[in-house]
Amino acid sequence: MSTQQEQPKEPESQEAPEDPEMRGAESPQQERLKEKEQGLAQAEAVDESDVEGETVHLKVFRYDPEVEGKQEPRFDDFYVPFEKGMTVLDAVMYARDEFDSSLTFRHSCRQAVCGSDAFFVNGRQRLGCKTQISELEQPVRVEPLPHQEVVKDLVVDMDHFYDQMHAVEPYFQDEDTPATNDLEEQRQSPENREKIKMSSRCIWCGACMSSCNIAAGDNQYLGPAAINKAYKFAMDDREGAEIKEHRLRILEQEHGVWRCQTQFSCTEVCPKDIPLTEHIQELKREAVKKNLKFW
Amino acid sequence: MSQSYNRGLIEDFGRWKEFSAGMWAWIFHKFTGWMLIGYLFTHIAVLSTAIGAASGDVALIQQETDVYTQTIQGLESLFIIRILEVGLLAVAVFHILNGIRLLMVDLGVGLTAQDKSFYASLVLTGIITVASVPTFLDGVAL
């Protein structure tokens, strides 16, 4: 069932046991799956008749250019038994493990640290592992991140996002490292640490970039995440004035900070609550200060 | 960005129901800005053609056919023009208030209240517009 193909007349409900394709399944694996699904479907039927809200109705985006039956994008329905504390990621993982093993999505740490599982859930970019099902309206629509090329199902191509992240040179640069006989650490003042604290929380999930209207229209725009990354280093006191100027030169280009129209979309979707717009605005002011030196 | 398939109106402006405050503020600001530019040029066109003496013809001025006053009076007697004036005020007031809000955003003041300030500018615009209706619709027949 790994490369499941469907007839056009059956656009959804892969888990439905009454599906004629399932009955016609030949391989032992499909037989077993069929039995399992039938059992689950019965359990679901009981659940659904019992209490509303015991199961989660998921509508998951499906697309796979390599499989003939999935080249036309569609939504599949999954009914997943609800558990207290269930997240969107838990639900799609259940759907994958129990119903359709071909359902593809990225995930790793499941605790909002790795940044792999940003989805477009109910019309908003959210981190799957950080979004409680109980807070969402049903059916829960799970789609891949908008404005990024879909590779398969919920997996999007992140290459462009990573390119933009690397474009701002996201690493500490300092010409004069402390003398070895002197202090070996490059200490940062607590105040300065506090200043860049929020910007250092970025997990590279790409939710902000996907929500940004400007990034959608301008492929060269650095995007909120990359600018925030640049902020982290530009505002770090330990870096010299020269390197800060170099960073601002990158940021003040045509497709840099000035593309931001302060729509606050990125700030609103950021799963780590980074005040992205604030950081972009501050860098705009820094860029102006650098160029307009009347004193 | 490039897309491997067309999600049509699922994205972008088809998603208007899911827009947040900042997005609406941006759209309204662009819209009102273009409206004001459109008004500006209409304004210039109407007024410049309404000045009969613009050609510098002394005879025309002496005739006292005051084209300017006639044009203005003619326009002001139209109900639709009064309605449009109320609309113009609404557009201008919103653009001013949201402009102040954007100025604050650019200065980094009160960024956490950006959605509230947008709603405030909307409400204020509404109040000012409604309050202006008696003045604008004074003495005009439907």
TrEMBL record, chain A:
Keywords: 2Fe-2S, 4Fe-4S, Iron, Iron-sulfur, Metal-binding, Oxidoreductase. Signal peptide: none annotated. This is Succinate dehydrogenase and fumarate reductase iron-sulfur protein. Residues 57-162 form the Succinate dehydogenase/fumarate reductase N-terminal domain. It comes from the Archaea. It comes from Natronococcus jeotgali DSM 18795. Residues 199-274 form the 4Fe-4S ferredoxin-type domain. Residues 1-51, 175-194 are annotated as: Disordered. NCBIfam families: dhsB, PRK05950.1. GO terms for molecular function: 2 iron, 2 sulfur cluster binding; 4 iron, 4 sulfur cluster binding; electron transfer activity; metal ion binding; oxidoreductase activity.
From TrEMBL, chain B:
The chain crosses the membrane at residues 79-97, 118-137. This is Succinate dehydrogenase, cytochrome b556 subunit. Keywords: Heme, Iron, Membrane, Metal-binding, Transmembrane, Transmembrane helix. SUPFAM superfamilies: Fumarate reductase respiratory complex transmembrane subunits. InterPro entries: SdhC_prok, SQR/QFR_C/D, Succ_DH_cytb556, SuccDH_FuR_B_TM-su. PANTHER family: SUCCINATE DEHYDROGENASE 2 MEMBRANE SUBUNIT SDHC, SUCCINATE DEHYDROGENASE HYDROPHOBIC MEMBRANE ANCHOR SUBUNIT. Its main location: membrane. It holds the Pfam family Sdh_cyt. GO terms for molecular function: electron transfer activity; metal ion binding. One of its GO terms (biological process) is tricarboxylic acid cycle. GO terms for cellular component: membrane. It comes from Natronococcus jeotgali DSM 18795. It is found in: Membrane.
